[in-house]
Amino acid sequence: MQESLKIHNAFNNFTEASRSLETCYARLCEQVTFLTEELENKNVQLRELRQHHKRNLRLIAMGEMAATIVHEIRSPLCSIELYSNMLMDDLKDTDHSEMAGGISTGIRSLNNILTNMLLFAKPRNLSFSDLQIRTVIADALKIIEPLIEIREVTVSHTLTDHAVSGDRELLKQVFMNILLNAVQSMPEGGNLTIEMEGGGEYLKIIVVDEGVGIDPENIENIFDPFFSTKEQGTGLGLAIAHKIVQSHEGFIKASRNGDRGSTFSLYFPYKNSTAALNHINDGKEMNT
Ligand SMILES: Nc1ncnc2c1ncn2[C@@H]1O[C@H](COP(=O)(O)OP(=O)(O)O)[C@@H](O)[C@H]1O
Ligand SMILES: [Mg+2]
After folding, report:
1. Using CA positions, which residue lies closest to atom 19 of ligand 1?
2. What's residue 197's pLDDT?
3. pTM for this predicted structure
4. In a domain, 162, yes or no
5. What is the 3-state secondary structure (H, E, C) of 151-181?
């Protein structure tokens, strides 16, 4: 009897142990399934990251290649520009002067596209100095002067002395891109106005055109790289301008004018310029 009780108890213990083992086994199975799923997810993520990395490497290589090509095209283009300017001088006051002017305008436009591409493919380090922003705007206007004449655009501006700290070449590119868009938006001609407002925390430069205006549904996208509504546009002008102004701790606002045309307002902080710092130090009035 004693023996059979022992066997019975042992059997019970065995059944209990086997049940608890079964529960453990089921739990382990659940965990294995969960971990397997997790591993699969991680593997998918890893594959995506690898692809992303590969794509980034390809983009970097393409950027490098684009930069090299732009450099290669640029050198002969500079020579062509030089010769076309000489030709323009030679043909001044002759029947062919307009043709020579057309060549120069085409070259300048090509040069501008190349600069935007280069800046997009390979942003360069900024070289800051104190500069009078009106001289930068005047330089940019000078470069697009032939196009302004061809389009019969009238430029009026009130450019006063305002010093900000910035990279002259990059800021010239900003104004060229903004002014070029303004001129291109007026195929039938019109008025292009540039005004400056200083005094506050920011220097504000306002560019107003009387062109086709920006469609309300596009206003969110115009600063995106490669967004263009022009048949031959690269969509890089505003993206580059935005990036450069941002690197000067400023910003750009675009709006559609009530009746016709657009307004682009560029804001640059005064705080970075030595003039502004001197102003803070000695309490003198600045930007007068
Ligand atoms: N002054 C403007 N008037 C009307 N539309 C403009 C003006 N400036 C920019 N845009 C719009 O923003 C788009 C992007 O401009 P941008 O980046 O300079 O590229 P792109 O000039 O090559 O088209 C233009 O295609 C145009 O639709
Ligand atoms: Mg443009």
Report:
1. 235
2. 94
3. 0.77
4. yes
5. CCEEEEEECCCCEEEECHHHHHHHHHHHHHH
